[in-house]
Specification:
Length: 92
């Protein structure tokens, strides 16, 4: 177990060193010099935007499901003989 963790740590260290060397040579771009490649920052911002859009869609679906629960409850009450609630039907 210890050997596996040591090997994994060495591999991660080598990857970090390679990335830093490539950034120093200009092969990997980092305009703001925060040691995070610009490509990763772009990917993160894209994922963050998609998550925000998914949250909005989730809220819409949640509202529709709550309205559907109310409609199902109304159907149940009508089947028991209670008067219909809600909007009056339009006369044609």
């Amino acid at each position: 177990m210890t050997t596996t963790l040591t090997i994994l740590g060495i591999i991660i260290l080598i990857i970090i060193i390679v990335v830093l060397v490539l950034m120093a040579k200009g092969k990997i771009k980092d305009k703001n010099k925060n040691l995070i490649p610009d490509k990763l920052e772009d990917i993160y911002s894209t994922i963050d935007e998609r998550i925000d859009q998914m949250k909005l869609e989730y809220q819409d679906v949640k509202e529709v499901i709550e309205e559907l629960k109310k409609q199902i409850k109304d159907i149940e009450e009508v089947s028991k003989g209670k008067k219909r609630r809600g909007r009056k039907p339009k006369n044609k």
